[in-house]
Inverse folding.
């Protein structure tokens, strides 16, 4: 990919009203919306423009027409909300050395033969990534290979959202303790009585443990779901740390 600064790319003369670059653009089913609110049809975008900043893909249908027009891709955040995206398109959009944030909102990354790309391959393709958020489909693709891949990344924050009761969060945290001990891990669980019971048991075991393997987790809940005495005990335990430890920090949200 060219290393030319985005600002040097010029729009074609017959589309001078279109900026040569766009920042914080959103690709919808029929058009692209720029950060200033201007909506532009795909045919009006010049054939030699660059993208930078944040790109949100709400629908993938226009990607085959959009990507050939891009001569510089310098994104720092890619947010995918489409139903799917082909891996070759994904690799192009994630090719920037400045890409630090990736969000997968129920988006399936797949090869041209419709086979789903494993999460570990996705991590491999973005060595610059610092923050990863995945929604909904994480329960299908959390594999041993995926977990082991974390030790090779530069990730600082991982957010797993809309997690079901079946997600084995304790097993996952124990694995991260060895594979990526300095990772901030954010869990967003679907509300259920079973999940609340599991969390209360988890906190109880953490407080009873003579050796604290992780910084005491933070919880964001409503309606007093988590036992108040347990939360107060966690606060006291947290005060024992004078500064952030070089250990995983966990955030739980319901």
């Amino acid at each position: 990919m060219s290393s030319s600064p985005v600002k040097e790319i010029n729009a074609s003369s017959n589309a001078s009203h279109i900026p040569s670059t766009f920042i914080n653009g959103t690709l919808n089913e029929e058009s692209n919306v720029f950060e200033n609110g201007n909506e532009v049809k795909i045919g009006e975008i010049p054939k030699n423009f660059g993208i930078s900043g944040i790109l949100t893909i709400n629908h993938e249908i226009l990607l085959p027409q959009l990507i050939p027009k891009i001569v510089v891709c310098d994104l720092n955040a890619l947010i995918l909300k489409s139903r799917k995206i082909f891996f070759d398109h994904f690799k192009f959009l994630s090719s920037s050395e400045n890409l630090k944030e990736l969000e997968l909102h129920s988006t399936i990354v797949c090869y041209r033969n419709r086979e789903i790309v494993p999460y570990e391959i996705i991590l491999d393709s973005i060595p610059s990534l610092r923050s990863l958020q995945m929604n909904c489909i994480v329960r299908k693709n959390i594999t041993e290979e995926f977990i082991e891949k974390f030790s090779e990344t530069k990730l600082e924050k991982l957010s797993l959202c809309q997690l079901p009761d079946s997600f084995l969060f304790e097993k996952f945290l124990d694995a991260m303790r060895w594979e990526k001990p300095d990772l901030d891990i954010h869990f967003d669980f679907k509300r259920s009585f079973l999940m609340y019971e599991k969390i209360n048991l988890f906190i109880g075991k953490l407080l009873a443990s003579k050796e604290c393997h992780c910084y005491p987790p933070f919880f964001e809940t409503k309606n007093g779901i988590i036992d108040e005495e347990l939360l107060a005990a966690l606060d006291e335990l947290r005060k024992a740390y004078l500064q952030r430890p070089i250990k995983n920090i966990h955030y739980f949200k319901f």
Observations:
- Confidence is low (pLDDT under 50) at residues 1-17.
- The helical segments are 63-66, 87-93, 119-124, 138-141, 144-149, 169-179, 193-208, 228-239.
- The radius of gyration is 21 Å.
- DSSP finds eight helices and 13 strands in the chain.
